[in-house]
Specification:
By secondary structure, the protein is mainly α. It contains 14 helices and four strands. The chain has a two-stranded parallel ribbon with strand order 1-2. A two-stranded parallel sheet has the order 3-4. Helix 8 packs across helix 10. The mean pLDDT is about 90. The protein binds zinc ion. Zinc ion (ZN) binds near residues 39, 41, 43, 50 and 51.
Length: about 300
Protein backbone atom coordinates (compact mmCIF):
# COMPACT_ATOMS: atom_id res chain seq x y z
CA UNK A 1 0.00 0.00 0.00
CA UNK A 2 2.78 2.43 0.92
CA UNK A 3 4.67 1.51 -2.24
CA UNK A 4 1.58 2.32 -4.31
CA UNK A 5 1.08 5.67 -2.58
CA UNK A 6 4.72 6.75 -2.93
CA UNK A 7 4.82 5.74 -6.58
CA UNK A 8 2.03 8.24 -7.40
CA UNK A 9 4.61 10.99 -7.08
CA UNK A 10 6.36 12.11 -10.30
CA UNK A 11 9.85 10.65 -10.52
CA UNK A 12 9.01 7.64 -8.34
CA UNK A 13 7.83 4.26 -9.62
CA UNK A 14 7.40 0.85 -8.08
CA UNK A 15 8.51 -2.54 -9.39
CA UNK A 16 6.48 -4.27 -6.68
CA UNK A 17 7.99 -7.43 -5.19
CA UNK A 18 11.12 -7.73 -7.28
CA UNK A 19 12.06 -11.10 -5.80
CA UNK A 20 9.02 -12.59 -7.59
CA UNK A 21 10.18 -11.47 -11.05
CA UNK A 22 11.14 -14.87 -12.39
CA UNK A 23 7.87 -16.40 -11.20
CA UNK A 24 5.99 -13.70 -13.10
CA UNK A 25 8.04 -14.05 -16.28
CA UNK A 26 7.79 -17.85 -16.32
CA UNK A 27 4.31 -18.07 -14.71
CA UNK A 28 5.77 -20.64 -12.35
CA UNK A 29 2.45 -21.43 -10.73
CA UNK A 30 -0.92 -19.91 -11.52
CA UNK A 31 -3.46 -22.02 -9.54
CA UNK A 32 -6.01 -19.90 -7.72
CA UNK A 33 -3.78 -16.90 -7.15
CA UNK A 34 -5.75 -13.77 -7.89
CA UNK A 35 -2.93 -12.02 -9.72
CA UNK A 36 -2.06 -14.97 -11.91
CA UNK A 37 1.48 -13.64 -12.38
CA UNK A 38 0.43 -10.62 -14.44
CA UNK A 39 1.68 -7.05 -14.21
CA UNK A 40 -0.72 -4.52 -12.59
CA UNK A 41 -1.59 -3.38 -16.16
CA UNK A 42 -3.10 -6.92 -16.42
CA UNK A 43 -0.76 -7.96 -19.23
CA UNK A 44 1.59 -10.90 -19.06
CA UNK A 45 5.13 -9.70 -18.44
CA UNK A 46 6.32 -10.18 -22.03
CA UNK A 47 3.28 -8.25 -23.36
CA UNK A 48 3.51 -5.36 -20.89
CA UNK A 49 4.82 -2.19 -22.55
CA UNK A 50 7.16 -1.49 -19.63
CA UNK A 51 8.46 -4.97 -18.75
CA UNK A 52 8.74 -5.85 -22.45
CA UNK A 53 11.18 -2.96 -22.88
CA UNK A 54 13.01 -3.82 -19.66
CA UNK A 55 13.46 -7.33 -21.11
CA UNK A 56 14.87 -5.86 -24.36
CA UNK A 57 17.35 -3.74 -22.39
CA UNK A 58 18.49 -6.70 -20.30
CA UNK A 59 18.80 -8.95 -23.34
CA UNK A 60 20.63 -6.31 -25.40
CA UNK A 61 24.06 -7.75 -24.56
CA UNK A 62 23.07 -11.03 -26.26
CA UNK A 63 24.05 -13.16 -23.25
CA UNK A 64 21.11 -12.61 -20.89
CA UNK A 65 17.67 -14.14 -21.11
CA UNK A 66 14.88 -12.26 -19.29
CA UNK A 67 13.34 -15.56 -18.20
CA UNK A 68 16.55 -16.46 -16.37
CA UNK A 69 17.31 -13.20 -14.57
CA UNK A 70 17.34 -14.29 -10.95
CA UNK A 71 16.19 -11.74 -8.37
CA UNK A 72 14.82 -14.26 -5.88
CA UNK A 73 16.50 -13.99 -2.54
CA UNK A 74 15.39 -16.47 0.09
CA UNK A 75 16.49 -18.39 3.17
CA UNK A 76 19.15 -20.20 1.10
CA UNK A 77 21.18 -16.99 1.34
CA UNK A 78 21.60 -17.54 5.10
CA UNK A 79 24.74 -19.06 6.59
CA UNK A 80 24.63 -21.99 9.02
CA UNK A 81 25.29 -19.61 11.91
CA UNK A 82 22.35 -17.39 10.96
CA UNK A 83 20.43 -17.69 14.23
CA UNK A 84 23.52 -17.28 16.39
CA UNK A 85 24.51 -14.14 14.43
CA UNK A 86 20.97 -12.82 14.71
CA UNK A 87 20.86 -13.34 18.46
CA UNK A 88 24.24 -11.68 19.01
CA UNK A 89 23.32 -8.76 16.75
CA UNK A 90 20.07 -8.36 18.65
CA UNK A 91 21.64 -8.49 22.09
CA UNK A 92 24.61 -6.24 21.34
CA UNK A 93 23.14 -2.91 20.35
CA UNK A 94 26.40 -1.27 19.28
CA UNK A 95 26.35 -0.27 15.64
CA UNK A 96 29.81 -1.58 14.69
CA UNK A 97 29.45 -4.85 16.62
CA UNK A 98 25.96 -5.39 15.30
CA UNK A 99 27.15 -4.86 11.70
CA UNK A 100 29.91 -7.39 12.25
CA UNK A 101 27.62 -10.13 13.55
CA UNK A 102 24.65 -9.42 11.34
CA UNK A 103 26.89 -9.30 8.26
CA UNK A 104 27.99 -12.88 9.05
CA UNK A 105 24.42 -14.16 8.94
CA UNK A 106 24.35 -14.20 5.12
CA UNK A 107 26.37 -15.75 2.31
CA UNK A 108 27.89 -12.56 0.99
CA UNK A 109 28.93 -13.78 -2.47
CA UNK A 110 25.53 -15.34 -3.20
CA UNK A 111 23.80 -12.17 -2.00
CA UNK A 112 26.07 -9.98 -4.12
CA UNK A 113 25.33 -11.96 -7.29
CA UNK A 114 21.57 -11.77 -6.67
CA UNK A 115 21.86 -8.10 -5.69
CA UNK A 116 23.68 -7.31 -8.95
CA UNK A 117 20.82 -8.91 -10.91
CA UNK A 118 18.35 -6.84 -8.88
CA UNK A 119 20.20 -3.61 -9.66
CA UNK A 120 20.32 -4.45 -13.37
CA UNK A 121 16.55 -4.89 -13.41
CA UNK A 122 15.97 -1.78 -11.25
CA UNK A 123 18.25 0.28 -13.47
CA UNK A 124 16.50 -0.95 -16.66
CA UNK A 125 13.08 -0.27 -15.13
CA UNK A 126 14.20 3.20 -14.01
CA UNK A 127 15.28 4.04 -17.59
CA UNK A 128 12.10 2.70 -19.19
CA UNK A 129 9.67 4.53 -16.88
CA UNK A 130 11.88 7.63 -16.56
CA UNK A 131 11.94 7.59 -12.75
CA UNK A 132 14.98 8.39 -10.60
CA UNK A 133 13.54 6.58 -7.59
CA UNK A 134 12.42 2.97 -7.87
CA UNK A 135 10.63 1.18 -5.03
CA UNK A 136 11.04 -2.52 -4.31
CA UNK A 137 8.47 -3.86 -1.84
CA UNK A 138 9.84 -7.41 -1.62
CA UNK A 139 9.46 -7.37 2.17
CA UNK A 140 12.13 -9.96 2.98
CA UNK A 141 15.28 -9.26 4.90
CA UNK A 142 17.35 -11.30 2.41
CA UNK A 143 16.26 -8.94 -0.37
CA UNK A 144 17.38 -5.99 1.70
CA UNK A 145 20.76 -7.58 2.37
CA UNK A 146 21.25 -8.42 -1.32
CA UNK A 147 20.64 -4.75 -2.15
CA UNK A 148 23.09 -3.71 0.59
CA UNK A 149 25.77 -6.20 -0.58
CA UNK A 150 25.70 -5.16 -4.25
CA UNK A 151 24.90 -1.46 -3.94
CA UNK A 152 26.69 0.54 -6.66
CA UNK A 153 28.41 3.72 -5.44
CA UNK A 154 26.12 5.97 -7.47
CA UNK A 155 22.93 4.52 -5.96
CA UNK A 156 21.34 5.60 -2.67
CA UNK A 157 19.45 2.90 -0.81
CA UNK A 158 16.72 3.96 1.60
CA UNK A 159 14.49 1.75 3.72
CA UNK A 160 11.00 2.18 5.11
CA UNK A 161 10.29 -0.59 7.58
CA UNK A 162 6.51 -0.84 7.90
CA UNK A 163 5.43 -2.74 11.02
CA UNK A 164 1.85 -3.97 11.23
CA UNK A 165 0.13 -4.93 14.49
CA UNK A 166 1.03 -8.61 14.97
CA UNK A 167 -2.48 -9.41 16.22
CA UNK A 168 -3.99 -8.23 12.93
CA UNK A 169 -1.34 -10.15 10.97
CA UNK A 170 -2.05 -13.32 12.95
CA UNK A 171 -5.83 -13.07 12.58
CA UNK A 172 -5.58 -12.38 8.87
CA UNK A 173 -3.36 -15.47 8.41
CA UNK A 174 -5.79 -17.62 10.41
CA UNK A 175 -8.68 -16.47 8.17
CA UNK A 176 -6.66 -16.92 5.00
CA UNK A 177 -5.63 -20.46 5.95
CA UNK A 178 -9.31 -21.28 6.58
CA UNK A 179 -10.27 -19.88 3.20
CA UNK A 180 -7.47 -21.73 1.38
CA UNK A 181 -8.28 -25.04 3.03
CA UNK A 182 -11.95 -24.67 1.95
CA UNK A 183 -10.77 -24.24 -1.65
CA UNK A 184 -7.93 -26.77 -1.41
CA UNK A 185 -8.49 -28.06 -4.99
CA UNK A 186 -8.47 -24.64 -6.58
CA UNK A 187 -5.37 -23.52 -4.69
CA UNK A 188 -3.67 -26.92 -4.91
CA UNK A 189 -2.72 -26.74 -1.25
CA UNK A 190 -1.12 -23.29 -1.61
CA UNK A 191 -1.20 -21.32 1.68
CA UNK A 192 -3.33 -23.91 3.48
CA UNK A 193 -0.61 -24.98 5.91
CA UNK A 194 -0.77 -22.87 9.03
CA UNK A 195 0.90 -23.07 12.38
CA UNK A 196 0.00 -20.63 15.13
CA UNK A 197 3.38 -20.55 16.84
CA UNK A 198 5.39 -20.32 13.57
CA UNK A 199 3.17 -17.44 12.42
CA UNK A 200 3.76 -15.54 15.67
CA UNK A 201 7.48 -16.34 15.58
CA UNK A 202 7.63 -15.29 11.91
CA UNK A 203 6.20 -11.86 12.77
CA UNK A 204 8.80 -11.39 15.52
CA UNK A 205 11.67 -12.65 13.35
CA UNK A 206 11.05 -10.57 10.26
CA UNK A 207 10.53 -7.37 12.23
CA UNK A 208 13.57 -7.91 14.45
CA UNK A 209 15.72 -8.82 11.45
CA UNK A 210 14.78 -5.68 9.55
CA UNK A 211 15.07 -3.50 12.67
CA UNK A 212 18.62 -4.64 13.42
CA UNK A 213 19.59 -4.11 9.75
CA UNK A 214 19.35 -0.41 10.56
CA UNK A 215 23.03 -0.64 11.60
CA UNK A 216 23.98 -0.61 7.89
CA UNK A 217 22.32 2.76 7.29
CA UNK A 218 22.66 6.42 8.16
CA UNK A 219 19.76 7.82 10.16
CA UNK A 220 18.34 9.69 7.13
CA UNK A 221 18.20 6.48 5.07
CA UNK A 222 16.20 4.20 7.39
CA UNK A 223 12.82 4.69 8.95
CA UNK A 224 10.29 2.58 10.86
CA UNK A 225 6.58 3.32 10.43
CA UNK A 226 3.53 1.71 11.94
CA UNK A 227 1.01 0.60 9.32
CA UNK A 228 -1.83 1.76 11.57
CA UNK A 229 -0.37 5.31 11.70
CA UNK A 230 -0.28 5.35 7.92
CA UNK A 231 -3.96 4.37 7.81
CA UNK A 232 -5.11 6.75 10.56
CA UNK A 233 -3.24 9.84 9.41
CA UNK A 234 -1.72 9.20 6.04
CA UNK A 235 -0.83 12.82 5.32
CA UNK A 236 1.19 13.33 8.51
CA UNK A 237 2.82 9.90 8.20
CA UNK A 238 3.73 10.34 4.53
CA UNK A 239 5.14 13.80 5.22
CA UNK A 240 7.23 12.33 8.03
CA UNK A 241 8.55 9.62 5.69
CA UNK A 242 9.35 12.12 2.93
CA UNK A 243 11.06 14.50 5.30
CA UNK A 244 13.26 11.84 6.89
CA UNK A 245 14.17 10.13 3.62
CA UNK A 246 14.58 13.43 1.78
CA UNK A 247 12.11 12.64 -0.98
CA UNK A 248 9.54 15.11 -2.29
CA UNK A 249 5.99 14.91 -0.88
CA UNK A 250 3.02 15.31 -3.24
CA UNK A 251 -0.77 15.32 -2.72
CA UNK A 252 -1.06 12.40 -5.17
CA UNK A 253 0.57 10.19 -2.52
CA UNK A 254 -2.52 10.44 -0.33
CA UNK A 255 -4.55 8.03 -2.47
CA UNK A 256 -4.26 4.59 -3.99
CA UNK A 257 -4.19 4.14 -7.74
CA UNK A 258 -3.90 1.41 -10.38
CA UNK A 259 -3.44 3.85 -13.22
CA UNK A 260 -0.33 3.31 -15.31
CA UNK A 261 1.21 0.99 -12.71
CA UNK A 262 3.56 -1.76 -13.81
CA UNK A 263 4.48 -3.62 -10.67
CA UNK A 264 4.31 -7.24 -9.63
CA UNK A 265 3.34 -9.33 -6.59
CA UNK A 266 1.76 -7.79 -3.51
CA UNK A 267 -1.91 -7.38 -2.83
CA UNK A 268 -4.44 -8.76 -5.30
CA UNK A 269 -6.47 -5.57 -4.70
CA UNK A 270 -3.84 -3.52 -6.54
CA UNK A 271 -5.66 -4.10 -9.88
CA UNK A 272 -8.68 -2.12 -8.75
CA UNK A 273 -7.24 0.50 -6.39
CA UNK A 274 -8.40 4.05 -7.07
CA UNK A 275 -8.74 7.41 -5.30
CA UNK A 276 -12.04 6.26 -3.74
CA UNK A 277 -10.57 3.09 -2.21
CA UNK A 278 -10.88 3.44 1.58
CA UNK A 279 -7.68 3.18 3.59
CA UNK A 280 -8.37 1.89 7.07
CA UNK A 281 -6.80 -0.21 9.77
CA UNK A 282 -7.59 -3.89 9.97
CA UNK A 283 -9.25 -4.39 13.34
CA UNK A 284 -11.20 -7.59 12.63
CA UNK A 285 -9.00 -9.41 15.17
CA UNK A 286 -10.60 -7.45 18.03
CA UNK A 287 -13.95 -9.14 17.49
CA UNK A 288 -12.98 -12.30 15.68
CA UNK A 289 -9.83 -13.71 17.29
CA UNK A 290 -10.35 -16.46 19.83
CA UNK A 291 -8.79 -16.44 23.29
CA UNK A 292 -6.01 -19.01 22.71
CA UNK A 293 -4.35 -17.35 19.67
CA UNK A 294 -4.53 -14.00 21.50
CA UNK A 295 -2.94 -15.48 24.65
CA UNK A 296 -0.25 -17.29 22.60
CA UNK A 297 0.53 -14.02 20.84
CA UNK A 298 1.02 -12.07 24.07
CA UNK A 299 3.12 -14.89 25.54
CA UNK A 300 5.47 -15.28 22.58
CA UNK A 301 5.44 -11.82 21.04
CA UNK A 302 4.67 -9.58 24.03
CA UNK A 303 8.17 -8.08 24.17
CA UNK A 304 8.55 -7.24 20.45
CA UNK A 305 4.92 -6.08 20.44
CA UNK A 306 5.89 -3.36 22.95
CA UNK A 307 9.27 -2.82 21.31
CA UNK A 308 7.57 -1.82 18.04
CA UNK A 309 5.37 0.68 19.82
CA UNK A 310 2.10 -1.22 20.37
ZN1 LIG B 1 2.56 -3.63 -17.11
Amino acid sequence: MLDNMLSNQDGMESVGELRLLQDHVNKTYSGGLAWNWTCTCREAMQDCKVWGRVAELLEADGTTSFSEVNTRTDVNCRTKGFHRSMLLALLLPFRGVRRRFWGKAYKTEQLRTLGESCYRVLSGFSKVVGADTVIDSSKTVEQLHALIAAKPDDVTLKVVHVVRDGRAVLYSKIKRAEEYSKKADEYRGYGASFSLISTIRGWCYINFQIAISKCFFERRDFMTVRYEDLCRDREATLKRICERLEIPFGEAMLFLSSEDKHNIGGSSHRFTWNAETPIRTDERWKEGMERWPKLAYYLFAGVPHKWFGY
